[in-house]
Design a protein that fits this description.
alpha+beta, 2 domains, two-stranded antiparallel ribbon
């Protein structure tokens, strides 16, 4: 963001639309009223957890589904997002303001110039993802990208604890993406720079969400895009150490977990190694962009993209992963849906926090 700040001060930066800052007099509505639609009572669908408002998004979805046109549905969704953020602004108090420009909304106490730069970063990132993933990415309809920047870690954890596990400790993080209800990014003011990779990663998921990708391909594309746009990728381990960890971890059962997407849900180092392996595979495959583009468009999670890899890339995925891992025995390494115990995962998992390799 420092580069954006410098370019702003030199008069070279700008957003297509001047950010709109909701004034203090703009109170949080008690109901949603859209011309041509029945009103929706917000006050009866808001509960407070840790003194912060939680909207019943299921009820919102049901209300929107009853509306007769896509235009009305879009208006209703936009009004719902805005109303929820205004209620959260009221609960947070202490100078929090709601700002928006183009496809982005921001709730924070950031100074107006920094808020403008932050909105610009979000809008630029979306534009860059569409350009980078030429022929693959599509901007999601109806929704805006929302970032909530809390003043301190206490408030941050008070908020995110509602979305964490019911038991046990919530993993430490400096920023994350919460998909529940109205999807949004959250971070702390002192860690604002740290959320940039999260934004790039999760915006990528949203832009390829229309494709039936296997989890490994979905996550591999997202990690590579994150690294290109947010310059993430510093590691706790050297490449040699990571390679040894890969060799020690990936047996035939674990490789089948990788193809089904289940390994991305592991709570041990298999989670980290899954993201790393997906990133390496996509990095190699995408060097021939035209062939990779065809592969992604044809790939399907039902077979982990196996048929598409043969048809579009001319490779066997089992042989491919063995070559990357430098395994001598490739028997049982090809995707085998009969070995998966449940439906394959889609990727773009519900809560994203920085990984050990990020």
């Amino acid at each position: 963001m420092l580069k954006l700040l410098r370019s702003l001060l030199s008069g070279k930066a700008g957003v297509d639309e001047v950010p709109y800052f909701a004034g203090k007099e703009e109170s949080a509505p008690e109901s949603l009223r859209i011309e041509g639609a029945p009103p929706f009572s917000l006050s009866s669908h808001i509960t407070y957890v840790n003194q912060l408002p939680c909207l019943d998004w299921g009820a919102i979805y049901s209300w929107i589904d009853t509306l007769p046109s896509s235009e009305l549905q879009a208006q209703a969704w936009s009004a719902s997002e805005r109303a929820w953020l205004l209620h959260l602004r009221t609960a947070l108090g202490n100078g929090y303001r709601l700002a928006e420009a183009n496809q982005a909304m921001l709730l924070s106490t950031l100074e107006p110039a920094i808020a403008r730069i932050t909105l610009e970063y979000m809008n630029r990132t979306l534009t860059r993802i569409v350009r980078l993933l030429d022929g693959l990415a599509a901007v999601p309809a109806r929704r805006k990208d929302i970032l909530i920047v809390f003043d301190d870690h206490d408030t941050y954890y008070r908020y995110v604890s509602h979305y964490g596990p019911e038991q046990g400790e919530f993993a430490l993080s400096s920023g994350m993406y919460i998909r529940s209800g109205c999807a949004h990014f959250v971070t702390v003011k002192s860690d604002l720079r740290e959320v940039e990779p999260v934004i790039a990663h999760e915006m990528t998921h949203a832009c390829v969400g229309h494709l039936p990708l296997p989890a490994w391909l979905n996550e591999g594309i997202a990690v590579n895009t994150e690294r290109r746009l947010a310059h993430s990728g510093s590691r706790l381990y050297t490449p040699e150490q990571m390679h040894r960890r890969h060799l020690e971890f990936w047996g035939q059962p674990q490789i089948q977990e990788f193809w089904s997407g289940k390994s991305f849900l592991r709570t041990d180092e298999g989670n980290m190694l899954s993201y790393d392996l997906a990133q390496i595979m996509v990095e190699h495959m995408s060097k021939n962009w035209k062939a990779f583009q065809k592969f992604v468009l044809a790939g399907d999670r039902s077979d982990a993209g196996s048929a598409a890899a043969r048809d579009c890339l001319g490779v066997d995925l089992g042989d491919y992963v063995c070559a990357i891992l430098e395994r001598a025995d490739c028997n049982g390494c090809a995707p085998d849906p009969t070995a998966w115990n449940s439906e394959p995962e889609k990727g773009g998992f519900s809560v994203y926090a920085p990984r050990l390799t990020a």
